[in-house]
Specification:
about 50% helix, Alpha-Beta Plaits, five-stranded parallel β-sheet, alpha/beta, 2 domains
Length: about 350
């Protein structure tokens, strides 16, 4: 063909490639025939040919396995430079070689500026064609390997980040009930105390305790006790109505509700609603001194925090209120004014 001799040995390595998928965009039938013959030397037994830019873009939009694009600049509908830019956007990892009859420097400059990897002029020379395509394919292979490595590193980084997040979450969650644990509560209390001190807002705490829990454990066993702790924790969580409010397991059968920007009246309403939610579960408790179902007692405390005051004063006040609720018969809520509020009272 065209007096050109082809040497299969000139493309050792690529000829071993089982499938090379090439798109040829050219309306020159003679050049297409020559490209087809040369591409067979590279392992492409069935190159795809289109004769206009619009069809080339349609092919590129659905293509998933292209290895190389050969593009003529002078097309009947859209100029090859514009087609090249669009193809690069659609298929950034597929090399594009411009194959054209133009030989001026401006054509070369525009082709490379538009994203083409290489430039060949017509009439095609077999040795040059094979060499340039071989280089383009080698660079594509390196680009794909680099892309694959980047994906692996990105995936690994995401997994590490997820593992870190999971570990942080585990460190904050009580394993039995699935709510915040004591450690996380202590952290949140410090944060909310400082926030309230800066914003001059109130901070409330509700201390909650299952009534006669030790007797319950003796009657139903530790598994029965654990199950009731889970049920109660779930009911307490559902009783909260604001995203800023947090229920945490304080220890054993004791829980706390941290309520930012909440007055004594508001906190007492939350405590009473939580107490009622637990009672309405109607979990049997045959050895309770106040009911035949599982109940809780609650102590409420509210303060306008100050940075110079220890947040422990809020816990102490809520604990005092809880003790009073227990002493007055259990299954009830009591409120206490923190010592710091009394000291700063006007």
């Amino acid at each position: 063909m065209h007096g050109i001799r082809y040497h299969r040995a000139s493309c050792v390595g690529l000829a071993e490639r089982p499938h090379v998928n090439v798109l040829v965009i050219d309306n020159d039938l003679q050049n297409r025939d020559l490209c087809c013959h040369l591409l067979r030397e590279l392992g492409c037994v069935d190159p795809r040919f289109v004769d206009c830019g619009a069809e080339a873009l349609r092919v590129a939009e659905v293509a998933t396995d292209l290895d190389l694009i050969l593009l003529e600049l002078e097309l009947p509908d859209v100029h090859g430079i514009e087609i090249c830019r669009r193809l690069v956007a659609l298929l950034p990892n597929v090399p594009i070689i411009i194959v054209t009859g133009r030989t001026d420097a401006a054509a070369v400059r525009d082709a490379l500026d538009s994203g083409a990897q290489d430039f060949m002029t017509k009439p095609l020379r077999a040795i040059e064609f094979l060499a340039r395509v071989r280089v383009a394919m080698r660079l594509r292979g390196e680009r794909l390997r680099h892309f694959s490595q980047e994906q692996r590193l990105t995936t690994r980084a995401r997994r590490l980040e997820k593992s870190k997040t999971d570990l942080e979450r585990i460190a904050c969650i009580d394993q039995l009930t699935g709510i915040a644990n004591r450690r996380h509560f202590d952290t949140l209390l410090q944060i909310e105390w400082k926030r309230a001190a800066r914003n001059h807002t109130q901070l409330s705490l509700v201390m909650l305790d299952l009534d006669d829990f030790h007797a319950l454990n003796e009657l139903y066993g530790h598994l029965g006790g654990d199950l009731r702790l889970k049920n109660v924790a779930e009911a307490m969580t559902k009783s909260l109505q604001r995203a800023s409010d947090v229920i945490a397991r304080y220890g054993g059968e004791e829980f706390v509700a941290l309520l930012p920007d909440t007055s004594t009246e508001g906190a007492f309403a939350v405590a009473e609603r939580t107490r009622a939610c637990v009672e309405n579960l109607k979990l049997p408790h045959a050895t309770s001194r106040c009911s035949d179902v599982v109940t809780i007692s609650a102590g409420v405390a509210t303060v306008a925090p100050r940075l110079e005051v220890d947040p422990a004063t809020l816990i102490e006040a809520a604990d005092v209120a809880l003790f009073r609720a227990k002493a007055e018969g259990r299954n009830r809520c009591c409120a206490e004014i923190p010592r710091v509020a009394k000291l700063f009272a006007v």
